[in-house]
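Re: the request from the purification team.
They wanted to know what the chain is likely to look like in 3D before they choose a buffer screen. I agreed to run a prediction and write the result into the notebook, where they can find it.
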Amino acid sequence: MAVAVVTGAGRGIGAGIAAALSARGHHLVVTDVDAAAAQATAEALDGPATAMPLDVRDASAHRAVALAAAGLGDVTVWVNNAGVLSTAPAWEATDDEVTSTFEVNTLGTVHGSRAAVDVMRRGDILNIVSLSGLGPTPGFATYGASKAAALSYTQALDIELASARRPVRVRALCPDVVDTSLVSKVAHRPSSALLFTGTRLLSVDEVVDAAMGMLGGRRALRTVPAWRAALQRSSAALPGMARVAVPFVARLGERRRLSR
C-alpha cells in the first residue's frame, strides 16, 4: 500500500489533507506536535492510519517518522504542513517568537523534506508555504521571511532531484489567508491587518483541493488565489511602490479586522 506522511495534521489544513489522501487509498502517517490531536485525526480517517507525535524542529524525529513510514509500505507522498503564525512589528517580536517561527516554518520544512528524500523512491513532496513568502508583508516580517526561505529551499531541492534523475517531485503550495485557528489566534492584533485585505478568507477545503491537484502533476508552484500572488510579487519587485501602497492597503485591512 502507498504511504503518505502529513505533518501538522492534528487539525486544520493538515487534517483535511490527511482525509483527502486517505480517501485516495493511502496509509496515512499522521503527525503533530500534539500527540492527542494526531491520534484523533488518525482515528477519524476511513482508511488505515498511524499517528505519531512529531516536533518538526527535530531532524532526528523526522528521520524516525520516515523510517516508520517506510516500514509500512512505499512512501509516495510527504506533506510538510506544520507551521506557526505570529504577527508584530519587526522590532517588537520576541526572541522566542523569532526563533520558533524559523525553526518550525523553515527548518521544519527542510528537515521534513530531507527525511522524505531519504526514504522515497518516487512520488511527491508537497510543502505548504504561504503567499507571504512571495513579497514583503508588514506585520509579518519574521513569518514572511521564514516562508520565503522555505519556498527557496523547495524550489532548489526540486531542481536538484530532477538533475539527479530521481523521480521525486517537490512542490510548493502558497495559499492566501486560510480560516483556521492559527489566524483566529492573532486576529485581535492590529499587526494582523494585512490578513484581512482580501475579499475573504480561504476555506480549508479550498486549500486541500489545490493541494490534491498538485500531486502527480507538473506544476511546481501554485498560488491561491493567483491575483493575490501578483500583488505580492509586485511588492517585492517594486519596493519603492510598496512603501507607499502597502501601508494604505493595511489601513483597509485594519478596518475590516475591526468590523469582524
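For the purification team: The two ends are 46 Å apart (CA to CA).
Please add any questions underneath this entry.
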